[in-house]
Amino acid sequence: MSATLHLPELFGSQVFNEETMKERLSSASYGTWKKCVTEGTSLDISTANEIAEAMKQWAVEKGATHYTHWFQPMTGVTAEKHDSFISPVSGGKIIMEFSGKELVRGEPDASSFPSGGLRATFEARGYTAWDPTSFAFLKEGSLCIPTIFCSYSGHSLDKKTPLLRSMDEVSRQALRILRLFGDMETKRVTAQVGPEQEYFLIDKALYSQRKDLRMAGRTLFGAKPPRSQELEDHYFGAIRPRVAAYMKDLDETLWALGILSKTKHNEVAPSQHEMAPIYTDANTACDHNQLAMEMMKKVADRHNLVCLLHEKPFAGVNGSGKHDNWSLGTDTGKNLFKPGSTPSQNAQFLLFLAAFVKGVDDYQDFLRTTVAFPGNDHRLGAQEAPPAVLSIFLGDELNAVVESIIKGTEFKDAGKRTLEIGVDVLPAIRQDNTDRNRTSPMAFTGNKFEFRMLGSSQSVSGPNIALNTMMAEELKQFADELEQSSDFQGDLQKLIRRVFTEHQRIIFNGNGYDDAWLEEAAKRGLSNLKSTADALPAYIAPKNVDLFVKHGIYTKEEIQARYEIHVENYATILSIEANTMVDMIRHDILPAVSKYAADLCSRAGSKKEHGIPCAYETNTAKSVAELTDQLMEACSVLSLELENIPAGPEKAMTYCHDKMIPAMSAARTIADKLELITAAEYWPMPVYSELLFSV
Ligand code: ADP
Ligand code: MG
Fold it and tell me: Which of 161, 196, 378, 394 could bond 148 through an S-S bridge, CB–CB 3.0 to 4.6 Å?
């Protein structure tokens, strides 16, 4: 495709997008769909039938044979169930059929998707329903229809439904604020998201020789190579040919799917790279990120590579995260986090900023839980990613504005006396470039916030649901107060000042990697939930449950179910890792090092027979043998811990955190020492230097 690649034609060629709908639907049906999307009206069955027919024709012309409802169960990955379009007719023939009913609603046999008890309590099965706001697309011969996934009683079992609900809610509350500023035009406010995605690429042949990578997605053993990222020559370095070919293929694949892949570059660690798309609405961004992660893996396979999305594939080497760039935009094309150029725009900007600051402070613990899972525990606070403490970076200029508002003092840059909100114009606030150290978990970068605690493998849905909902709550509180006001300017001024004063503790512009910050944060009373096991209980803290229930994002049962899934997932992941370690130690490492020691001994013996010195062989054999026994012992401890995991998900989580992790790390330390003294030909798997510098 490359020689004649014509980007505008390639882009979205696999997507049944608005333009295609316009072309292929009657204007009545197109209009009904458009109204459904923009105003939330429902679709009648005859329109659904027409859309289904057009979709099928389009898909079949492009070679599709199947369709699938494509959804995002709470596993965090996507699920599909493929049905072919065929329908038998007389004479042993078939026709290709697809009805509106099949488009709109499906019933996957969903008994094995995690439901956190929701299906047990309510209904045995779930159903999927078309999300007409997200375009259908073609993937490997199947027409994929983005859907939500619910139980029969309407409880959401997926990551899309609550995201859509939270987008509606933040829009509703933001509109109330806009009306107060006299904006009668805006009909909808949309959460905008641009997720930057980091990943590793390694050689497939090497990957297949590592059980840990195959089972757990990360290396469970591996001594630090003589060289890793010390030279700092990889970040933005020249892209190697094999990687360049991969990136080109990936870009073209993503473009065909209508994904706005924009930037690609090398990251800090060797073999680590990043892809960032241009931002879109949160729902599409979330779908696209899921699709992009899937394609990253598939395209890698075509190039005899493996794409690792795990947060920490290699100990001692920077892990991978995902930066969630988030803002609110209006259907009239305005960004509500862009400082304006008139007094009124500035006042509005400061009010949205105040809502965000208050929201992050009020719900810091919940935001933390949205990035809490075992893979991410390896990164947060490990001097390569933000600490587990939430704080907001505003940059020097904006911070000075906030301080002058709090103190009611002169604002220097503007050369003015007291800054009167809604009366004075703020100085132009430029995008702050001082934050390139990336140590802040939540940074204001000119016209958006960048939430940087996300792990590379996770769905961006959860964090964005939280951002949208906390924002909806704060905007609601502000609107409730200001709608009653008889002196809007005066009360606005007071409210902004009060909120910044009360929530200033969440603002921190210094180095987030510094230990002194953690002490300071503790003094400020900020929560520091170090691990997933520490963080998850906050998921169901009454104030957090209230927030989501009040705004109709989750029912009480839904949030409880999600909590249970996350808790269970923790012990599951750790058990898989620990079991894989035991397996590798018993079946691969111990036999290999034992053979090595024995061979050394027999070589020492034959040297001795000839009266030749054999200190190297005997000393090495001795060290290997000692470590071998220690490793055997550590492995027994680990396997005992595995047997002792208590029943009950919460107990299991705590147990795994307190007992399993130390046992795993003890075993690993010994194995890594062995790796360093064992001859290369004996070591049973490729080592870090091979894995990291292979591509
Ligand atoms: P950096 O690496 O400097 O953080 P990138 O350019 O790699 O920045 O990524 C920034 C991301 O933020 C992109 O996905 C971009 O589309 C997105 N973005 C830009 N403006 C907004 C906005 N107003 N709202 C949400 N996302 C945005
Ligand atoms: Mg970034």
Answer: 161
